[in-house]
From TrEMBL:
ATP binds at K42. It comes from Streptosporangium album. CDD domains: STKc_PknB_like (cd14014). It comes from the Bacteria. WD repeats lie at residues 395-436, 437-471. This is non-specific serine/threonine protein kinase. InterPro entries: Kinase-like_dom_sf, Prot_kinase_dom, Protein_kinase_ATP_BS, Ser/Thr_kinase_AS, WD40/YVTN_repeat-like_dom_sf, WD40_repeat_dom_sf, WD40_rpt. Keywords: ATP-binding, Kinase, Nucleotide-binding, Serine/threonine-protein kinase, Transferase, WD repeat. GO terms for molecular function: ATP binding; protein serine/threonine kinase activity. Residues 13-279 form the Protein kinase domain. Its EC number is 2.7.11.1.
């Protein structure tokens, strides 16, 4: 189904053109030839590394969730028309929305006025309330999943996004979601409730009014590190919307604004701004990536790329999509040095799951050291005299450039990873390899041990975080 347009599916849905793609989904503009209307056809694409048994389970879950979402009937929620299968993969047929996503509006406008954002938020909250009342949690709410057309604000991917949340951390250690808009409890692999959607709502509105998400970083690990180590920066452009954003972005779900509180607060902001212009809706037109010379809502060094964690990109509208990153793109290095001490100070009070998801903040960079890891030894009393350090050993075995290394908490084991996606564990005392770990399909740029040394986390270009346990 993903090879070419024009295919007639299920004797009814004609594929016209691809309009969006993400880590776990591809969207086509299609035509319902029975009812003579445009539709959006979304195909779920499982990660290549996912075992067949898991694909079947997730396929069944996707069907169940999409059928649940089809029960929703609200102008602020994209309508699910049909749920079918192709080669054991779920196919979701949805309402085709001809409009701009909130992410595209932010990209064009850089920031939106607080009153406008409050009106968008109020309409989003009404739609979320409808879904939550039906027992459906979105779990991947973000500007790319919010469409603006006419006077409508439409949330997309209900049910389908629930699939991505349900496999937030599977047995194979694959984390799926969008880190810049993911609730802290979702990062912790805790049950995600309606409160998680409210956190993501706050992050989405924060991005709209500030021009950037509440947490940014040069890469995925830096974003997660910022999230678990500190509170979001106070908004500076939000005006009367600021206390609402702060209330929605409380890390503890019990302290977060609930739906009723947020609704009343947003209504108060919009009521106080009755003289403001109407809801922002840009004219519909094919969207193209901004030129390099145009200022972006997210600076290139901080922009949270869609699909970093297997993001299910929503594109149920008539817009072109950005071409996928080429080899080597999106690798922006580790977290800034200034961010690392703050993250390190916060680690002691964090759960082990959060520490694992840092996946490399404590790792020593070794990129550019082809096929070998060098151990050096220096005086215990000082790390500031590099001239006194001597080479202790050279460990060989990698066949590609070494990307990252990390010591276990007790210092007896060293983990290293390379551009091919291979991890190796070494006995530091004996200077011998212990085990080779495979499973990543692309280069691994970050590795980190849990505080007790029983679990190793790894992450890289295949957009997944894997957890490896001893024993």
């Amino acid at each position: 189904m993903t090879e070419a347009g024009g295919k007639l599916f299920n004797g009814r849905y004609r594929l016209i053109e691809p309009i969006g793609i993400g880590g776990m989904g591809k969207v086509w503009r299609g035509r319902d030839e029975l009812l003579d209307r445009d539709v959006a056809v979304k195909e779920i694409l499982f990660p290549h590394s996912m075992p067949l048994s898991e694909r079947k389970v997730l396929g069944q879950r996707a069907m169940r969730e999409a059928r649940s979402a089809a029960r929703l009937n609200h102008p602020g929620i994209v309508t699910v028309h049909d749920v079918i299968t192709c080669d054991d993969a779920p196919i979701i047929v949805m309402e085709f929305i001809d409009g701009s996503s909130l992410a595209q509006v932010i990209e064009r406008e850089e920031r939106l006025a607080p009153a406008e954002v409050a009106r968008i938020g109020a309409m989003m909250l009404e739609a979320l309330g409808e879904a939550h009342a039906a027992g459906i949690v979105h779990r991947d709410l973000k500007p790319a999943n919010v469409l603006l057309t006419g006077n409508r604000v439409i949330i997309t991917d209900f049910g389908i996004a629930s699939l991505a949340g349900d496999v937030a951390l599977t047995a194979s250690g694959v984390l799926i979601g969008t880190p810049a808009f993911m609730a802290p409890e979702q990062v912790d692999n805790l049950p995600v409730t309606a409160a998680g959607d409210l956190w993501s709502l706050g992050a989405t509105l924060y991005a709209a009014v500030e021009g950037r998400p509440p947490y940014t970083g040069t890469n995925l690990m830096a974003v997660l590190a910022a999230m678990i180590a500190r509170e979001p920066d106070p908004p500076v452009h939000a005006g009367s919307l600021a206390p609402i954003l702060t209330g929605l972005l409380r890390k503890d779900p019990a302290e977060r604004l609930d739906t009723e509180q947020a609704s009343l607060a947003l209504a108060a902001v919009t009521a106080a701004q009755d003289g403001q212009p109407p809801l922002h809706t840009a004219p519909s037109r094919p969207w193209a990536p901004p030129s390099a010379s145009k200022a972006s809502a997210w600076p290139a060094s901080e922009r949270p790329h869609d699909g970093q964690l297997g993001d299910l990109d929503t594109a149920t509208r008539r817009h072109r999509f950005s071409p996928p990153e080429g080899p080597g793109q999106g690798r922006n290095g580790d977290a800034p040095a200034s961010a690392q001490p703050a993250a390190a100070r916060g680690i002691r009070s964090l759960s082990r799951r959060r520490v694992l998801l840092l996946a490399g903040l404590g790792a020593m960079a070794a990129a550019g050291v082809p096929a070998a890891v060098a151990l050096t030894r220096g005086p215990e009393s000082s790390l500031s005299r590099p001239g006194q350090w001597t080479l202790a050993a050279t460990l060989t075995g990698h066949t590609w450039d070494v990307e990252a290394v990390a010591f276990s908490p007790d210092g007896t084991t060293l983990a290293s990873s390379d551009r091919e996606g291979t991890l190796r564990l070494w006995d530091v005392t004996a200077r011998k390899p212990l085990v080779t770990l495979t499973g990543h399909t692309a280069g691994v740029h970050a590795v980190a041990f849990s505080p007790d040394g029983t679990t190793l986390a790894s992450g890289g270009e295949d957009k997944v975080v894997r957890l490896w346990r001893t024993g």
